[in-house]
Amino acid sequence: MQHLHEHDWFCRGLSPASIYLSKDGKCVLAPFELAQPLDAPLYLAPEIQRGSPHDPVADVWTLGAIVYEMCAGVPPFKSVDEISSGAVPRIGGRPGSLTDLVARMLSSSPESRPSIQECLRSVPRGSDPHPPQRRSEDRFMEALRSRGREAYEEAMSLFEDGLELSPEQEAEACRLAVAKGWSMMAEQFEEAYRPEEGRTTMLMCAAMDRNLDLLRRYVHERRMQDENGWTALMFAAQAGHLECARILLPEAWIRTTRPASDLAEKGTVMMLAAQAGHADIVELHWPYECCGKDANDHNAYWYAQKAAKNGERIREILDLEGQGKVRRRENIPAIEDILGRKE
Hints:
The protein is mainly alpha-helical and 343 residues long. Among the domains are: 121 residues, Transferase(Phosphotransferase) domain 1 (Transferase(Phosphotransferase), domain 1, Orthogonal Bundle), CATH 1.10.510; 113 residues, Ankyrin repeat-containing domain (Serine Threonine Protein Phosphatase 5, Tetratricopeptide repeat, Alpha Horseshoe). It is 48% helix and 2% strand. The protein is built from 20 helices and two strands. It has a two-stranded antiparallel ribbon with strand order 1-2. α9 packs antiparallel against α10.
């Protein structure tokens, strides 16, 4: 792709289906001049979806979507409407340098994306790009993310042989085993699992997945933050999971510690929800997080200007904040009160 861009060519129609491995393990692109935009709409950059002028950074967005799927096992977006919203989902259980790079690649703003040269410089290369055998841990995680009897049998076989998983992989494996009902595996992972500040927690994973049962089980992990300062509530708000956001309301007003997914340092849940176009979550958090500003002196009303959906409704909710005529409510409900009311 770098070679193509250096010669003023770009692919536009790239998708996982057009990437092949040769017999000697090299990655090969299918004839890109034959690719049609409608073949894989979930891998087309937003500006192409809109019919706007575009350039080689559209390929960077597509590559970001493909890398996301390689890491998470699923595409980053389920529909064209989700792509249009501009909200970039986070990848759980992966190094921050990689997740931050993918988030930048998937930015809805072409100007905010890195060039393909920057992408290559951002990710360290291993000494052997084509290892002869995949690690057992990687095969286990792939089987765990897959469906079917064969995937189950492979995952159980690798699990019984013993694995050395990273803390992020353990959290994801525990979440997936619980979700799949693999009780023996889930129990062992839960016994060994220890939440750590600065890492993805089970509560964050439950919020991403809209898994309310798992979320209630791990609600004691509230107020913990990952390496970017994100909380479980932020993941729920980004994905538009209103019920999860209600339960996690006590995490309101916690700030991010680093910029990520187009949210600046010192960003809040309401800014994230406003940008993603989730009006119900903005309305829920408005009394508690109004008047806040990020490290760039922007408030939620400013983020609402970028919302691709429900923007008008969100701006109506935040109108008083935009005018600076509102005061924040200080008494955030306790988690015990929220869970008591829910049950």
